[in-house]
Amino acid sequence: MNKVITSLLSLGVACSAALAANGAISAVKVSDKLDGISAESPLWAKAKYTTVTLYPQTAVHMNDKKANEANAADKAKNAQVAALYNGKTLAINVKWADGTKDVQGAYSSDTYSDGFALQFAGATKKSGPLPYIGMGSDGRPVVVHLQKATASVYEPNGNKDVSTQINRNQTNLFGKDLADYDAKVASLAKTDYERSFVGEGFRSLTEIKDGSSASAAAMVYSSNGWSGTVSRPLKDAYVNSSGTVPVAIAVWDGSKMGRNGLKNLSSWVAVNLEGMKPDAKIVGEIAEEAKGDAAKGKEALAANGCAGCHQVTAADAPSFMAPSLQNVGGYSTVAYLRESILKPSAVVVPGYNRNAHSNTPWYTIEKGKRVSTMTDYSFLDKNTVNDIVAYLKTLKAEVE
Ligand code: HEC
Which among 58, 272, 306, 364 is most buried, taking Cβ atoms within 10 Å? Predict the structure, then answer.
């Protein structure tokens, strides 16, 4: 399969139809300025839209009964995604349906907003497999650009540190004084929530606040859906893109209490810069198809006790021992699934809730390293692993 893709790629533009079948996006080259491009810019008329499916991230069972109920029957969403680049800057536009516009108020912490994020694979010294899609992994960083629909964020110190905002209920002001206070807040407030993070595994997501990530993200609501854009340099301190830029897309639905573990997420998608040589290794990893037999894999999964720890399908009971696998086929590459079976500790999936389930840890710490509590299945023969991976690839919700 990899060989076929590589030779198709050498045909250049002619292969864009074939690539579209694998969900790859063709970034169209323009000579216009793209920094801070809006979702409504006429330049998007030049772009080519590709459908990308975003699966409910159900790896973690939340401690919030209401949120779990609201998301119990979540389906996958299709987004329309396009990219433009001008040699220096890459801009990506994502359009997705959402029947309700949920904007987070300035003072309420019990409301949830719609939002989206684009994740880029960070530059690494050694070339290796793509990072874990959730938040990177040791030695395989990701950069995340996040935007939320926010009414206004009052930031007295201007450093995007919302935690220091003053709650109007704690001002002891009334009547005209409170109205004056609100007016002052409005004049100082920002409606732009945008943040960038860099992550290299479990609990490592760190906000970039020193201005070293020159990105811009914006979102606009119209006719039952959002259009979000991110523009960022092709090369900076965090990413070093060449012909193919691996990107993952996440969207949050405020009406479903979307937050950390509750979002819709794509697998890695290849954005190929038109006119440049695609990176065959990245394209091949993203497009790799499972070689095994899914029906045999289902049997092997039962025979090897995987369901003793994991919830496998939506019909099975939730488990706190391990992440739910019910959508893992939707947002994981074949390489990642294979690695999860053969080297469980290569990536330790975040989401284990120490406080709620202290007796079912997902990892232990040995010599400062997180070691997965998952059984090491490297004893399985190659065909069995391929079969299990083929079955895991079928585990995903249908599109709404
Ligand atoms: C003893 C409990 C246990 C058993 C048995 C087990 N797992 Fe796991 N598995 C875990 C834990 C805990 C994690 C999360 C920590 C980590 O990333 O390794 C995990 C993670 C995974 C992941 C990554 C999930 C994600 O959301 O990225 C996959 C895939 C997976 N397991 C597949 C399997 C398969 C297939 C089997 C059977 C061949 C299996 N597991 C057996 C405990 C288990």
Answer: 58
